[in-house]
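Work Package 4 report. The design task specified in the project plan requires that, given a folded chain encoded as structure tokens, an amino acid be chosen for each position. We show below one input record used in the internal validation round.
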């Protein structure tokens, strides 16, 4: 769990991220934390490669919804969504040593 969640549950003394710049929310962890800049760039590059290789329509805009939600309205295929989720899990588990 992220510090922000742990703080709300009473299992953390602070909601602030270890980087010290903001609350450790999902948005901060996925998009802004300086501790994971390199791993995040790798994940984003891989997702963009997946997007363009699969010939998805439109520009690849990486959002929380794209990373965390199921594909809706058939905007992206289930295969593309699964490949994007694999990149997210790689970021979460291998790159940042987080536990699920």
């Amino acid at each position: 769990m992220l510090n922000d969640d742990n703080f709300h549950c009473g299992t953390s003394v602070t909601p602030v991220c270890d980087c010290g710049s903001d609350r450790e929310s999902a948005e901060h962890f996925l998009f802004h934390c300086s501790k994971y800049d390199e791993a995040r760039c790798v994940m984003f590059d891989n997702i963009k490669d997946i997007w363009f290789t699969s010939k998805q329509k439109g520009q690849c805009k990486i959002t929380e919804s794209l990373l965390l939600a199921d594909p809706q309205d058939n905007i992206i295929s289930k295969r593309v969504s699964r490949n994007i989720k694999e990149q997210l899990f790689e970021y979460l588990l291998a790159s940042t040593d987080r536990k699920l």
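The chain is about 55% helix and 0% strand. Validation will be extended to a larger panel in the next phase.
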